[in-house]
Specification:
single chain; mainly beta; 7-stranded mixed β-sheet; 4-stranded antiparallel β-sheet; 61% strand
């Protein structure tokens, strides 16, 4: 079983910064792609950023230049640095990891962490 635990969410004023972390634990061989999604009330879950094992990154247009995704493979942890936050960034942020387990590659999700940006 693989667990993803997110941390770092909270309440911040517009223009502020937050850093989210996603720590993977359990029984697995390796972590392939790691990604962050978010879901605002009444909206669909959307991809925010993703990073491959080789550190190739991809961002939603709405966060380019403000957010940065990274990972520490030795710690099995991913990060999302969020700068210049806007009220429209308010959402529950979820970590997703594609993990190699005995049965092959499987996707796992974290429980989500709330990010609230006040104007």
């Amino acid at each position: 079983q693989v667990q993803l635990v997110e941390s770092g969410g909270g309440l911040v004023q517009a223009g502020g910064s937050l850093r989210l972390s996603c720590a993977a634990s359990g029984s697995f061989y390796s972590i392939d792609t790691m990604a962050w999604f978010r879901q605002a009330p009444g909206k669909q879950r959307e991809l925010v950023a993703a990073i491959t094992t080789g550190a190739i990154t991809n961002y939603a247009d709405s966060v380019k230049g403000r957010f940065a995704i990274s990972r520490d493979n030795a710690k099995n942890t991913g990060y999302l640095q969020m700068n210049s936050l806007k009220p429209e960034d308010t959402a529950v942020y979820y970590c997703k990891a594609r993990v190699e387990v005995r049965s092959g590659l499987r996707d796992y999700w974290g429980q989500g962490t709330q990010v609230t940006v006040s104007s």
